Amino acid sequence: MSFIQIEDIVVKYGALMALKGITIDIERGELLSLLGPSGCGKTTTIRIIAGFVHPSQGNVYINGERVNEVPSYKRNIGVVFQNFALFPHMTCAENISFGLRRMKLKKNIVESRLKEIIALLHLDGLEKRYPGELSGGQQQRMALARAMVISPDVLLLDEPLGSLDKKLREEMQIELRQLQKKVGITTILVTHDQEEAITLSDRVAVMNDGVIEQIGTPTEIYEKPRSKFVADFIGINNFINGNVVKIGNNEIICKIGEEETVLAPFKKGYVIGQAVDVIVRPESIELSEGIPLNMGNFLKGIITNIIYKGANISFFIRLSNNQVIVASPNKLDKSVINTNYSKGSEVFVSWKLESSYII
Amino acid sequence: MQDQGGRYKQRPGVGATVVALSCLGFFAISIPVVVMIVTSFNATPDLNFPPSGVSLKWYLNVFKRTAFLRSCQLSFVLAALTSIVSLVLGFLSSLGLVRYKFIGRDILHSILLIPLIVPEVVIGCSLLILFNKLHQYNSIINILILHIILVLPYSINVISANLVRFDMTLEEAAMSLKANKITTFWLITVPMIKEGLIASAIFSFVISFNNFTATVFLVRTKSTLPVEIFSYIRTESDPTVCCISTLLFCFVVIVILVAERLVGMEKLAK
Hints:
The structure holds two protein chains of two kinds.
Chain A: E1 4-13, E2 16-26, E3 31-35, H1 42-50, E4 57-62, E5 65-66, E6 77-80, H2 92-96, H3 98-102, H4 107-120, H5 136-148, E7 154-158, H6 166-183, E8 186-191, H7 194-200, E9 203-208, E10 211-216, H8 218-223, H9 228-234, E11 239-247, E12 251-256, E13 260-265, E14 275-280, E15 286-288, E16 297-308, E17 313-319, E18 324-327, E19 346-351, E20 356-358
Parallel strand pairs in A: 3-8, 3-9, 6-7, 7-8
Antiparallel strand pairs in A: 1-2, 1-4, 4-5, 9-10, 11-12, 11-14, 12-13, 14-20, 15-19, 16-17, 16-19, 17-18
Chain B: H1 14-39, H2 57-64, H3 66-99, H4 105-112, H5 120-133, H6 139-164, H7 168-176, H8 181-192, H9 194-210, H10 215-218, H11 225-235, H12 240-263, H13 265-268
């Protein structure tokens, strides 16, 4: 049995179903992200594991033991809340050692573990300060220290980096992952930031409206999304509608609009005539003025908008079937540099076969 | 506390007018108190102002008449007990009303606030009738029950206001850190609403101590200080009562200064 398991969890608030039957197995030492939009049920899921919410149906297992009836203070968990929930009337040291002091350990053990975690999270010198006197980053590390020092079976993080600015957030993401790997603690992270989920996790569970759409490694989610929702949420928002016209050994040919066709890598379970979406990752699309050579797919289009994004440039291109797709090549890419594209230009968009995927 | 910033740009002269009006208001409120304090030092057995002589003999009179001292003691004890009981009952009621949803919750809340609306005469009189019917003639206990009833709505209002703004994730955090419900209650909940509890205790004490209208219905042989003062001024008109009031005034000022030291005026006013 896996280390943490939630099985067929249903959560109802009156008539509203927050979770509609969730099953997740989490291995010891892994970092799993729950990714999804607001209201999808990811925070509710983490609260089920913590014991703050009781499921209407289903079972929760921690380390092999069924914990549905076990109160939060008897489950071996560590929680970092979105608002940190630091005790304002206690100092940094008192906050962090709060859990340790409930455990009836010897005083010198409490002191030494406190010292260890403070050093690990770079909070030296701040022991006597109150939470209100610390910066956002310091508060976040304090909340993390408080949850980790009690050596929980599982660490539950509810959008812990949400309130930090971008630069700090990215630094903390790296620190967090390194820490997690070093200590080897099983961690469940809730986030709505797909980049964060892909960067930090061993596996990602994409959730939508109370159900899990897909669980897999970041690579699987990104390269082989199982539904339009997952692809869209993960940032691949080019969906080219078409109909299957031919199924080959290695590829499936789809007709787009009146004349053009695209090829997508072969995938089982499709029949001729079926309406499908072919997704293409924006960063894999190249632009050219003439018909490109050696590319698996190309389509004609007109640029409707150009947005400069720093490292990339996003081109919005209308295809022959009136659909708009986005190409985001790196601005130093050979297909973009030294060219003079502008709104209204006619271009060819192309991509390799492997860069697309049929849904 | 961070400054909100953003001062309004005032027309010149408006600020001065506001200050002047505030001083005027403060002055108006404090005039009776000043007159009372000055009159307590009158040499003559009347309430003339300004006084013709200065004497401390009326202060001596206060301490000579044992009735005043005994009634003051009773008032103190009653106020202290009322304060403690209403703190506990008010806290428990507020927890129930704020944190739980049940059928009839809003009706119960309204019922608990009724003593705020019903005239004290009615409350005092109807309790007198009730206690007589129950053959409950211990006036001390009766007055205590009366005071708790009068004071409870204030207690509930103040403590509920604090509880409504209470961040429940703090309790969840404590529970995730191995604190059971009782430990969480004493280590997290109570300290966080400390200001509300202190404000409630002070309110309760003052309301109980000062109460006259309802208390006078239930007084028998032993009376509270307000009732004793009333009896005195029905026959005498010397400044003795001014002395009592001045002494009480000093006491209240000291209590407020001490409370401010402990808790901070901003927090008390919350």
